[in-house]
Amino acid sequence: MRMGMRGMIHLGPMLRLLPLLVVLGGCENEPPFIRDLKYSPNAALVGKETSISGTITYTDVDNDISQSVVELINPKGMAQVSPRTPIENVGGGVVGSVGFTIEKWIPDQTGTWTFNVFLIDLADHQSNKLDGIIKVN
Question: Model-level pTM greater than 0.85?
Fold first, then answer.
């Protein structure tokens, strides 16, 4: 079958709509995606109070991030989960960064502690988790 120039002209407007259809098709509520974990300090002393501060970078196409959560895991694998912490100044855009803190933490055992940080949006969708390591002596 041969398509003349006239057929191509009619197809052109439909092809111009394709990017719009792709964008509109992705407007469902999607979970945030996080990356680029930075934190300090990465070491602590057993029995001594310390605070860990950090940031993560997020992408959230829905622009509806709401809360952060930190899970702290001791060397034996026991986890403590922080309450959901409201994120201040939300609505900073589809791409941005968020700070978090593990406050007034007193490690009770030596070894390698880990923590996970993640975000939750207004639809209760959870982002991926990023892991950090803290060496306790």
Answer: no
Going by their DSSP bridges, the two strands 95-105 and 33-40 should be labelled as unpaired
Domain count, the chain: 1
d(CA 7, CA 5): 5
**SS3 assignment, position 64:** coil
Q: Which pLDDT tens digit goes with each residue over 34-67?
A: 999 999 999 999 999 999 999 999 999 988 999 9
Measure the CA–CA gap between 1 and 3, rounded to whole angstroms.
Answer: 7
Contact 131, 116 (CB under 8 A): yes
Residue 11 CB contacts under 8 Å (≥ 6 apart), including other chains:
none
pLDDT per residue over 110-121, tens digit each? 999 999 999 999
Separation between Cα atoms, residue 85 and residue 108, nearest integer Å? 24
Residue pair 116/68 in contact (Cβ under 8 Å)? The answer is: no
pLDDT of residue 119: 97
Structure tokens at 79: 């986890």
Give the structural domain span for 41.
Answer: 33-136
CATH of the domain at 98: 2.60.40.730
